[in-house]
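Q: Got a minute? One more chain.
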Amino acid sequence: MTPFVSGDIGSIFYPLTLGHFLVLGAVLFCIGLFGALTRRNAVAVLMSIEIMLNAVNVTLVAFAYFNKPTANLLTGQIFAIFIITVAAAEAAVALAAIIAIYRRRNTIDVSDINMMKW
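A: Always. Here it is, folded:
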């Protein structure tokens, strides 16, 4: 058992390891993937994609935290901030597209949206 320094992750109740965060990231990614593949509502698909991006963020920050001696430049946190920025831009564009499609077709069911087909 390793001694804990005050302020470490898990020092209060339970010693959290990198494996815990990887499992959490994998579970979140699987939930998001299941939602993206099974939902027909475009907003639900968009929310599922956001869950998958957050799973990647959890994994990146956990790797950066637990690899302190080698990753001393906050690389995981910087990548997570970049992913959050990209996710915000993606959500804005996707919601604008969903609203435009709803105004034209009165549905946001992804199986009914076939404008890109020949």
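A: The longest helix spans residues 75-105.
Q: Perfect, thanks.
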